[in-house]
Amino acid sequence: MDLVEMECQRWKSKGLNIKYEVRGNRKGYKAGALKEGLKHDYVKDCEYIAMFDADFQPDSDFLLRTIPFLVHNPEIALVQTRWKFVNADECLLTRFQEMSLDYHFKFEQEAGSSVYSFFGFNGTAGVWRIAAIDDAGGWKDRTTVEDMDLAVRATLQGWKFVYIGDIKVRSELPSTFKAYRFQQHRWSCGPANLFKKMMVEILESKCHFGTNSTFVLFPEIQIPLWGVVYVPTVITLLKALGTPSSFHLVILWVLFENVMSLHRIKAAVSGLLDAGGRVNEWVVTEKLGDANKTKPSTNGSDAVKVIDIKLPEPDVKLTEPLVPKLVKRRTRFWERYHCSELFVGTCIILCGCYDVLYAKKGYYIYLFLQGIAFIVVGFGYVGTIPPSTQ
Q1: Residues 103 and 244: beta-carbon distance below 8 Å
Q2: Is 288 strand, coil or helix?
């Protein structure tokens, strides 16, 4: 954060109206920080707010390409842009994430914007009209998905959103399975908890919210083969087309998504029932940056970089370690391995063995593949392993 403050000071010395603000607590997490930021007096002179997470890097012409949509159409509350991933090729886990998120942006967000229907705010890489935020009731910290909360309330007030896929903002994907699992818990638990709290408002509204799921509640209903196999297969292939370079990974991606469904369903149920103790848990998604790519000095001394930044005061030079000194430590079993995945994978493989020996229904092929996928994830072979630091 010191580097951010110094950068703001550098631009301020050139005459730009820029301010650096930090609050003294984490109350309300991201929603609380956004709510606090809009309380400053100088915000009254602003009409729009551009939002970026710490790992997002917009191009210099970002505002020039997004603000005109808000200026020329007073009914638009939000301009959402697309994410571009700088570490998509880091490991298999990041490739899978790229496939899922590319589909989300290329198809889901694009479709919602094209037919003037609801689509969610992604929490970053977007520009909001401050008047729309105020009209919707401001930022609320009642859930861990403050972005979707505000988007739903703004839609209920009649505001429109627009998605611009041509504008891409560089960002980083979590490359460790632990960080990805925490992120997916928040992304699954938060919307379910928000639906519980806003269900009455949503059902009573006249706004159009698209639905993409159907629940079969009666076991006696017979679903035809095309509905069980062919349609899901076509949808899966279309989703994979969002990232053509990773199309050959579609089978592995499907198996991995089935593994993640274990956590997503658990998170959604806990959010819907408001139970489990992790409903309002906010864990910052860990991003490694270049930590895995930079090697420490071999002579035992810490590498040092010199930062020379010109400030309004006399020039100063600051030094800081380039990479924290790595310390080897014994990894505990439950930290290295994921017991829930190992347990479920073992059960699925046993079911496959039962099908081979007794049932003979031919399900064992899928069961063995899916069971192995759970085992592989359970032993931590998906994603990178961060360096241990003291």
Answers
A1: no
A2: coil
Q: Alpha helix (H) ranges present in 28-91?
A: 29-37, 62-72
Confidence at residue 239, expressed as pLDDT on a 0 to 100 scale: 77
- Reference 165, options 245, 72, 102; nearest CA is 102
**Radius of gyration from C-alpha coordinates of the chain:** 24
State the DSSP H helix or E strand holding residue 155, giving kind and residue range, or none if neither: helix 146-156
Write down the pTM of the prediction: 0.80
Structure token digits, residue 141: 């910290």
Mean pLDDT of 260-275: 91
Q: Express the helix, strand and coil content of the chain in percent, nearest 5 each.
A: 50, 10, 40
Residue 316's pLDDT band (cuts 50, 70, 90): very low
For residue 106, give the nearest of 168, 194, 180 by alpha carbon. Answer: 168
pLDDT digits (tens, 9 = 90+) for 176-203: 998 999 999 999 999 999 999 998 888 8
Q: For the chain, first and last CA: distance in Å?
A: 21
Q: What residues contact residue 345 under an 8 Å CB cut-off, 6+ apart?
A: 371, 372, 373, 374, 375, 377, 378
* DSSP secondary structure letters along 125-138: SEEEEHHHHHHTT-
28: confidence class by pLDDT, cuts 50, 70, 90: confident
Who contacts 201 (Cβ-Cβ below 8 Å, separation ≥6)? 156
